[in-house]
Here is the input.
Amino acid sequence: MKKLLILVSFFSIIISCKRDDSNQKTILFRFFIKNETSKNVKISFFYPNNELFKEISINSNDSILVDEGSLQIAPRGPSYNLTYSIDSAIIDFEDGKKIIQTIGIRSNNDTINNILLINNYKRYEMVNPNYVRKQFTVTTQDYLRAK
Here is the structure.
């Protein structure tokens, strides 16, 4: 009986010390890519070892959902769980013109409308305070600078 009382007391203490996440807020994100050009595009994303991560095709003047995730905002700070170790992408237009974009330690980092940089994904719709849609746009200017 004494052991049972000690065990119950121990679990009561553990339960009462449980972290309170009631102030934690979750914001859901959905990421889209829109193709505003007059050409169909294929976009390939690569890991640092040049292995293909994902490949998507987007018709002219169309958009596609490419990923979704969430941002946890809590008293101990935010944590974002939509990250991949991709460091390069190729935007391939149907007529053969291409843009190669890189980040990180890769050479020739492209900072003009880089699809790999989150700040180039603009918020275009806030469905509610806990659900945001962000969009990257492949523009005519991107097509004109492609080689």
User: Anything to note?
Assistant: Strands lie at 25-35, 41-46, 52-58, 62-73, 79-80, 88-93, 98-102, 122-128, 131-138. Residues 22-145 form one domain.
